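Hi V.,

You were right to ask for the full record rather than a summary. Here it is.
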Amino acid sequence: MATRNEFALPDMHIDAIEPDGDNLTLMLAQFCVYVSLGGSAQQSKWRQSGTLVFEHAAVEGVLPDGPCTVASGEIHDNRFIYRDRVPLPLDARGEVGCVLTLAGRASPITISAQRIRLVEQGQRRYLEHVADQ
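Predicted structure:
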């Protein structure tokens, strides 16, 4: 059976957003990864930290000044749109980007890029078992 890993956008904690030329890096203090076996109705939930890197990025909307939490979001991978959960590994090129709605803010942030990748850092920490959603 194949193992499925999904990166969850809701409740993702962004510590900082660092521009570097035409690249943009979201420093992620914490996000959740859901792991399941193919055909299983159960999943395990894990906590992880890392960075979400956008290469050749353009931003629409106002970036937050400090730490923030994502309420919901979408990752755009060419013709595919993933809402709130994204299959891992995430390393896509082409017409890619994301739309993030931050907690407490009405207007979303849209980031368009030529490449998007999630770089996990440190060890995943087990949180709990959950019913398949």
